[in-house]
Amino acid sequence: MTPELRAFRTVELEAGACVIADLHLDVGPSGAEPREFLEFLARVRGRPRLVILGDLFDAWIGPAQMELAAARRVVEALRALVDSGTALEIVHGNRDFLLERRFEAASGARVHPHGFVAELEGGARALFVHGDEFCTLDRGYQRLKRVLRSRPMLWAAPRLPRALALGVARRLRRASVSALAVKPSEEKQQQRAAVGQWAAASGCSVVVCGHAHELRDESVGAPGGVAARWIVLDAFGGRRDLLEVGSGGRLSLASSAAGPAAP
Fold first, then answer.
1. What is the pTM assigned to this prediction?
2. Pairing state of beta strands 125-128 and 116-120?
3. Residues in contact with 94: Cβ distance below 8 Å, sequence separation at least 6, in sequence order
4. What is the DSSP letter of 83?
5. Least confident range of 81-95, 98-112, 158-172
């Protein structure tokens, strides 16, 4: 399965931009203060752009989530970052695909349901997605994803009473953990062939994603014999969980705890 490119915006990714993924912040009724993330936001002030490649939240049930104190604290911190001059791009993850226009209005972020294509200095193009798209051998998950993101579900989910929606989110998380525990390892993995197909379809020489919570930085073959660089970021808090855009479109990996380096 390759992307519907008409659904992908183009974003100019300037030198100094930063990319992270998979924070899985708990912003439910008992969610704790996400201190590490808030400290990171303070450090990236002054950067031209921050990109979050999905699963910012461990679960997001829709606009009613913003009534909860933990969620409100994160949204307000994101708004403060944007108001300081840092543009914010957020890609839907498999845990927070209900982020929509009301979240955009409150946070100042621009939400990309499918991902986006970045234009880098020097003319290179890079594809930024969450990364679950590449788990093509997990056909059960891909079927469920299509159902959960169908128009009727996207219409109904934000209209559920908050208590019911939170209960559904908890059950889905438990079911996901149970299903992953018994699936064959190969089935759960991101597939190199799928990455190459997406790179070719989007005309990009770099593909950047998260989702796997395991660092990769390697070359993959694409149809037509063209190679693409494939970067998978560690989950936030991991050893190499930060991607920094340098001059000339250079992409380098770092640690969010140690950086980002001064622009």
1. 0.90
2. antiparallel
3. 54, 55, 130, 132, 145, 211
4. H
5. 158-172
